[in-house]
Amino acid sequence: MSTRHWLVWLFIPVIAGAEPLHMESPEEQVKLLELFTSQGCSSCPPADQWLSGFVDHPDLWQKVIPMAWHVDYWNDLGWPDRFATAAFSQRQRDYHKAGLIASVYTPGFVLQGQEWRGWFRGGTADFRSQARVGRLALEISPGDSVEVSFRPTVPEWDQPLTARLALLGCGLISSIGGGENAGRELTEDFVVLGISSAESATADWSVPWPKVQATDAKRLAVVVWLSARGSPAPIQAAGGWLP
User: Fold this and answer.
1) Exposure string (b/e) for 97-114, b if CB count within 10 Å is 16 or more?
2) How far is C-alpha 200 from the chain's CA centre?
3) pLDDT in tens, 227-239
4) 39, 85, 140, 201: which has the fewest Cβ within 10 Å?
5) What span, in angstroms and rounded, lies between the C-alpha atoms of 111 and 114?
6) In terms of DSSP bridges, do strands 31-37 and 64-70 run parallel, antiparallel, or are they unpaired?
7) Is residue 155 very low, low, confident or very high in pLDDT (cuts 50, 70, 90)?
8) The pTM is what?
9) How many Cα atoms sit within 13 Å of 113 on the Cβ side?
């Protein structure tokens, strides 16, 4: 059975015979809180633990969506992170290339497309948004893709956009056998397990499920966000827990 078929099989028992699963953002911009991290970095577990605090946050999904991207540039330094991919490292480099972050490092936070260093100062992020950009919705039914639609409230967002979809895993436990965290057991949440994307000339997309390996996550979530073509910075996001 291919990875793609495994993922489709995973969702069919959840929603077969029931109404499609619907998730929708408010009109106000939902902020992506992205953490670039690695199991091989001794400074990362505290940042990962802080991100885990959003599991029960009252603003989760409607004001903020956390995502942990495991980068692969630590993999040759003593421990190969099982969640790391070159594509996730490239996303961080894309932020740097666009001038949105000063350098590539871990742990590194990006809040709504801009470098955020408040965590290092013990500060709290402001998830309130006055920007009314429009409602982003996704419909999940048995099949190979997720149907996504965007209804912008301001004309400047009426432009060609890229829709990206990620599957997130929570409650993931890893025993670290080498590198700076050797001997530790790490529990991680909002880990990006896979990502896919789709282009559309309209405000509707059919985004394929990302290809992921079987996972031991205690809980799964899905998130979709929109960006201007060629830009990593998000415009609007929506997501939620999967049954």
Assistant:
1) eeeebeeeebbbbbbbbe
2) 21
3) 998 899 999 999 9
4) 201
5) 5
6) parallel
7) confident
8) 0.92
9) 15
